[in-house]
Amino acid sequence: MTAGTESGDPGVPIVCDACETTSRVPLDAVADAIERHNEQLHNGDDIATVDPDIADQIADLVATDLGLLE
């Protein structure tokens, strides 16, 4: 996985428990980075993912923005 971002932003944390690795990638590269990692190292199985804590926070923000929590 990519070690960091080139634009200087903190990036989205990606974790892979099987490899015991964590990295950060730019938001627009998240899907490709996860897919590439899983294809190359895990036979396409969905092992690497966005950090679950961050994914939960994003889901909460989207739900709030859509008014689903009111």
Helix fraction?
Answer: 25-40%
The quaternary organization reads as single chain
- Tally of distinct domains: 1
DSSP E strands, number = 3
* Gross morphology: elongated
Structural class by helix and strand composition: alpha+beta
Tell me the distance between the termini: 38 Å
Task: Output mean pLDDT.
Answer: 88
| Continuous helix count | 2
Q: Measured on Cα atoms, how large is the radius of gyration?
A: 14 Å
Portion of residues in beta strands equals: 15-25%
In the sheet with the most strands, the strands line up as: 2-1-3
Order of helices and strands: EEHEH
- Low-pLDDT ranges: none
| Biggest sheet overview | 3 strands, antiparallel
Structural overview:
By secondary structure, this protein is an alpha+beta fold. It has one domain (12-65). The chain is built from 2 helices and 3 strands; from the N terminus they run ββαβα. It has helices at residues 30-42, 52-65; strands spanning 12-16, 21-25, 49-50. It has a 3-stranded antiparallel sheet. A hairpin with a 4-residue loop joins strand 1 (12-16) and strand 2 (21-25). It is elongated, with a radius of gyration of 14 Å. The mean pLDDT is 88. This is DUF8149 domain-containing protein.
